[in-house]
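Sat 14:20. Reprocessing the chain from the morning session after the first attempt stalled halfway. Input below, unchanged.
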Amino acid sequence: MNKIAIASDHGGYDLKKAVKIMLKELGYEVNDLGPKNNGSVDYPDYGISLARAVAEKTVARGIVICGTGIGMSIVVNRFPGIRGTLCSDVYTAKLCREHNDSNILIMGGRVVGHGLAHEIVKTWLDTPFEGGRHQKRLDKITRFDATNKF
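Finished this time. Tokens:
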């Protein structure tokens, strides 16, 4: 699936615009879930919309951006099946895909510059999940999501 969702709050709006352009240049169909401008908004509204799209498999993966990334991290990881990872460096972007099969990339628009964000996003998109010993750990999380027990 070459479709990806993106959303932000006002603190991540400018970086969201730049990442959206990059994604389109890479050939992705981008579903922009808002906001439409940099006016003050509540980040949970946009994080919930994006996490729901990924959880319901409307899109395979998503990217959310708020001022620091912390608020969006709290919101998206409340959904079963979501593995949102806050990344502010390329190494974390690589490992969160290889070991955790991250399906939502979270960044801080006031933390990560546009050039670094480009490298983080590209690494996150291009890095495959390794499976193996990592899959058994994700299976434990999936069981917990379903039963609330390990």
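Residues 3-147 form a domain with the Ribose 5-phosphate Isomerase B; Chain: A, fold (CATH 3.40.1400.10).
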